[in-house]
Give the backbone structure.
Amino acid sequence: MVAMASRLVRALSLPVTVKTRIGWGPESHMPIVDLARRLEDVGVAALAIHCRTAQQGYDGAADWSWAARAREAVGIPVVVNGDIRSAEDARHALEVTGCAGVMIGRRAIDHPWVFREARALLDRGETAAPPTMAERIALCRRQLVDNVAERGQPRGVFCTRRHLAGYLTGLPGAAAIRRSLLLCPTLEGCLAILDEAERRLAARGLLEAFTARRVA
């Protein structure tokens, strides 16, 4: 990793950054602190650390203390990653690690509003309102249209499916809507399903209602 980073730094005019885990695992002492120093020595501009081992996958809790130890050992910015699922998590991770920033990963797949929620809390000390039902449907529609424009059909429809469970959270009948969307291979069909869901919510006066907060 260090050799590869060194070659990139020498070859490029842009800043080179690295994202890595704390180690392969299981190990009594993770290599991340020494690795952070070595990456800094070859000119890496910043380091993002997912605070699990490679062998952990996504099991167990991320140990943010390793990001704090790496941050103390280097002068470059260190960004903490792993289990940042809410604005409150982002604030807490910054407080306990002293890192320059937080990186949000899997949570963005099903709840992209986490970024505005984190910015509201970190920048202004405010709790952002959760997305309305209208916002959730609008995002499903926009992503379907954009993905099909980029990838064509049916691939653009298929690659949107992984986001739908999170986007539709809190909507009455969300499970049935999601099931219909997962079975539909065309953009036109999916948009019709969303239009019908929107009409039903509008008829009940629920489109602008806020959906419940849920942290996966």
